[in-house]
Amino acid sequence: MGQIGSRDLELVLALVRGRTLAEGARRLQVDTSTVFRAIQRLEKELRQTLFERRRDGMVPNELALELARRGEAVEAQVEQARELLNADDRPMAGLLRITTTDTILKGLLLPVLPVFVQAHPQVELELVATNQVASLSRRDADIAIRPSMKPPEHLVGAKLGRIASALWASQAYLDANPSYRIPAQMDWAAPDDSLAEHPSAKWRRSKFPGVVPRFRCNSILSIADLVEHGQAIGVAPAFLLQARPGIVNLSGAVDDLGVDLWALTHPDVRHLRRVKAFFDFLRTSIRLDDATA
């Protein structure tokens, strides 16, 4: 069996993370043909296949995944060594990739983010707002800020607080529909099928099984906006709607809607200065008020 070096590990890691030749090439900053030849050479030298070629991309086998894990460890050690060399009075720098939902980004992170930006002007921030869970193991992001009652055991992180939610309406909507006496009679904005397991969707189906939502959204932020603009009632976090003028809490505090908010990262990168600094920033800056009365 042939030998394998650090560049080979970097190649495998890029393909495991990217899942396609094109994305692997982008991550390595080379062209696709170079990656194609490199992985062919490596598999020939190892006398083993590392990836299954499919129409939709490259699927790593167990050996490739294990090599990628070794590559991640090398990558983290190199990153830490670079930071060690720069750990004097020079300002913190580098790229920090943050993933979260659009709701948390707009309602919690963006209002306080200038504090971090001003404190660390040479740190580049890549913000990805999505309801899809980014893979921290594949380094799609460095830090994930996510609601969860049970974070993945292979990640490390900090609990930032508890998100309280309630059923809301605007006073304008209630005034325009005086004949509506109970929520079951009202127009609802609710999660669509992509968020069918969201706590608010489960709660609505349990408490109001006969309700057919007038608006279906793939974002809780959109539901909150529909409520604020008087189009419907809907469930949303207190941090989005509680302080907005003209908004009425129809349900009070609902324990079943509460969920913890976590900042999570991969163990291999938790010691990086910029990761630690962002965690410290989140602990001191994110404020969650459980009150929804």
What's the pLDDT, averaged over the residues?
88
- Biggest sheet: strands side by side, in what order? 4-3-5-12-6
Radius of gyration: 23 Å
| Largest sheet data | 5 strands, mixed
Count, helices: 11
Level-2 CATH architecture of the largest domain? 3-Layer(aba) Sandwich
CATH fold call of the largest domain: D-Maltodextrin-Binding Protein, domain 2
The CATH homologous superfamily of the largest domain is called Periplasmic binding protein-like II
N-to-C span? 67 Å
Fraction in beta strands: 15-25%
Q: How many beta-strand runs?
A: 12
Quickly count the domains.
3
SSE pattern: HHHEEHEHHEEEEHEHEHEHEEH
Weakly predicted, low-confidence segments? none
Content-based structural category: alpha/beta
Family: Belongs to the LysR transcriptional regulatory family.
Organism: Arenimonas oryziterrae DSM 21050 = YC6267
Keywords: DNA-binding, Transcription, Transcription regulation
Protein name: HTH lysR-type domain-containing protein
What does this structure look like?
The chain has helices spanning 6-18, 21-28, 32-46, 62-85, 102-109, 113-119, 171-176, 199-207, 220-228, 238-241, 273-285; strands spanning 51-54, 57-60, 94-100, 123-129, 143-147, 156-163, 165-170, 189-191, 215-217, 234-237, 247-249, 259-265. With 293 residues, the protein is of the alpha/beta class. It has three domains: 6-85, Winged helix-like DNA-binding domain superfamily/Winged helix DNA-binding domain (Arc Repressor Mutant, subunit A), CATH 1.10.10; 94-156 and 263-285, 3-Layer(aba) Sandwich (D-Maltodextrin-Binding Protein, domain 2); 165-257, Periplasmic binding protein-like II (D-Maltodextrin-Binding Protein, domain 2, 3-Layer(aba) Sandwich). The strands form four sheets. A five-stranded mixed β-sheet has the order 4-3-5-12-6. Strands 10-7-11 form a three-stranded antiparallel β-sheet. It has a two-stranded antiparallel ribbon with strand order 1-2. Helix 1 (6-18) crosses helix 2 (21-28) and helix 2 crosses helix 3. It is elongated and about 75 Å long. The chain starts with 5 loop residues before the first helix and ends in an 8-residue tail after the last helix. The mean pLDDT is 88.
